Amino acid sequence: MTQDGERVAVEGDREDRISDLPRNVIDRILELLPVEDAARTSILSRKWRYIWAMLPSLVLGYRFCKSFKWEESPFNFKEAVDNILLMHMGDIVKFVLDTRALRLSLSAAIDRWMFYVTRNGVKELTLRVSSYHTYTLPSSIFNCSSLTKLTLFKCVFKPPNSFLGFQNLITLCLQGATFVPTTSFCVIKAPRLASLTLDSCNGTQYLNIVSPGLESLYVSNSQWQCYPLLNCLINCKSLTVLKLECHDVVNNPKPNEKTTLEKLLVSLPALELLSADVVPNGLPVTLNCLWHLLLNLDLGKMGLTSYVLQLIKNSPNLSKLEIRVDGTSDDAETVMKYLDMPSCLERPLNNLEHVAINFFKSSKAELLFVKLLLSSTPYLLSMCIRQWADIDVDIALELMRFRRASPRAELFYSQQKT
Questions:
Q1: How far apart, in Å, do the first and last CA atoms of the chain sit?
Q2: 124: helix, coil or strand?
Q3: CB burial class (10 A; 0-12, 13-18, 19+) of residue 396?
Q4: Comparing 79-93, 192-206, 282-296, 301-315, which segment has the lowest mean pLDDT?
Q5: Distance of alpha carbon 150 from its chain centroid, rounded?
Q6: b/e sequence 299-320, b meaning 16+ C-beta within 10 Å
Q7: Residue 350: band (very low, low, confident or very high) from pLDDT cuts 50, 70, 90
Q8: Among 330, 404, 387, 319, which Cα is nearest to 364's?
Q9: CA-based nearest residue to 170, from 231, 126, 213
């Protein structure tokens, strides 16, 4: 065989290797590429020519949107998305659209694209729109029975009167959404919903979620809107993960809000409270369900410090405790006297095994807090203290000298990683 013949054979073998790749491998390769690069693979071989147009996942993300020139981008962008959807063949299982890079309103075009993907079997839908405009979700999304995962950013959630719920939805994530009730409440019926995230949403006081199988809930809000929301969750007996982040609120909530939270905490069989930045003061209940607690703590404030200890005392099954030190002061004499009192913790924490203290600042109040925990946890296995600044040898030695109620307790002292 000639040298030229050998070269042709090698080139043909290489082309055959590309063409003979399993279809699932080709699909996976194209899924990892931006859509514009995936389209360019059509020149690799005859077999690849139309594969990109049959991908079940279409990701038109921020990078794709930003690639269009500003002065022409709204028009070019709409034309590009229209062409991509027009050329697509088969179902669209996953669709991601991010229009934040464009400041002009695209509501009419987005309505058209949502109508198309919801008619083509979409199961996972992510929509992130520009914060410069308000986008109200079209009825096509509420009427899409194939949805299993829905992620929305900066959208107005106003279901039509004919809305029967998301019958197959498993995961719902809403960030910066605004709920507008059609009557007195915005009702979401989702019998299969397992995970719900409501981050910085408005109008949650109008929200009523009917989902008896809910397992995970994350609510973050800057007002007391997160507590009225809990009214509709008291009967969620499957809830195992609860994360509440409520910021810039007063210390004393309304009486009905306090009662709602207390009912929720004591009624759930296996509650994991991953974040409780703000919990109503004076909680007079025993939290038998609580086993993982994450708190922000300011050891310069007597009221907050005493409440955190009360919450810990009232959680007899607490196994994991994570503390983030938001503030402290060596001048807080009242706090230090309180932490140094023998009656500060009236009984040992018999189930607490793991403690983590982050952003430790080495104040006297923090040292007394650590000393108190070490002396009150007979079954402690580990305590991790992460120093906010550089490691202090003197502080390390002082920590090591504290008496430990548990002979198996290990103390780890390291620098905080930001």
A1: 63
A2: strand
A3: middle
A4: 282-296
A5: 13
A6: bbbbebbbbbbbbbbbbbebbb
A7: very high
A8: 330
A9: 213
* CA dist., res. 331 & res. 413, Å (int): 24
Q: Which two tokens mark 310?
A: 């009360």
Q: How many Å apart are CA 62 and CA 98, to the nearest integer?
A: 5
Please name the residue that has the structure tokens 């962008």: 77
- Write the CA distances from 325 to 198, 210, 294, 299, 357, integer angstroms: 25, 37, 11, 7, 7
The token pair that represents 172 in the structure block: 């719902």
Q: How many CB atoms are located within 10 Å of the residue 13 CB?
A: 9
Indicate yes or no: pTM above 0.85: no
User: Do β-strands 320-327 and 354-360 pair in parallel, antiparallel, or remain unpaired?
Assistant: parallel
7: left (phi over 0), alpha (psi -120 to 50) or beta: alpha
Q: What per-residue confidence (pLDDT) applies to 12?
A: 47
Rounded Cα gap, residues 401 and 351, in angstroms: 23
The predicted-structure confidence for 98-138, as pLDDT tens digits, reads as follows 988 887 778 999 999 999 999 998 999 999 998 788 899 99
Q: List the structure tokens of 170.
A: 């498993």
Q: How high is the pLDDT of residue 239? A: 66
Cα–Cα distance for residue pair 37/56, rounded to 1 Å: 16
Higher pLDDT, 33 or 410: 410
Of the listed ranges 18-22, 99-103, 144-148, 241-245, the one predicted with least confidence: 241-245
Per the CB < 8 A criterion, the answer to whether 138 and 116 are in contact is no
Query: Can you tell me the distance from the alpha carbon of 203 to that of 218, in angstroms, rounded to the nearest whole number?
Result: 16
Contact (CB, 8 A) for 125 and 147: yes
Q: Closest by alpha carbon to 329, among 295, 373, 367?
A: 367
